[in-house]
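Session log. Operator J.P. requested a structure for one protein chain; no other inputs attached. Running the standard single-chain path with token output.
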Amino acid sequence: VQLVESGGGSVQAGGSLKLSCVVSGYKSYYMAWFRQAPGNEREAVAAISPSGASTYYADSVKGRFTISRDSKKMYLQMDSLKPEDTATYFCASDPQWWHLMANYNYWGQGTQVTVS
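Structure written below.
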């Protein structure tokens, strides 16, 4: 399983970005988005089940971020961005449902999001 993120960039506070994660290999796994800012530990952002029917969000992004997926990609729509959302965002995947725990076995290389 290989994961490749895209869609990061620089945006002003209040703006929006949409991240994508392309999945190669076995696709019907549980998936999640994590982020890590310099000097901070990696933290969970959102997670989604293989069907997309179940989703979980960190309290810090509820109501602003939306996780979704289709047969080829996972997405993270980020609205009302804040400077504290600045971080490298990673997608993750695993056959086991880890929800917002960082136990996923497969990880992408990350994409940078900067909010000023």
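Operator note: The longest strand covers residues 17-24.
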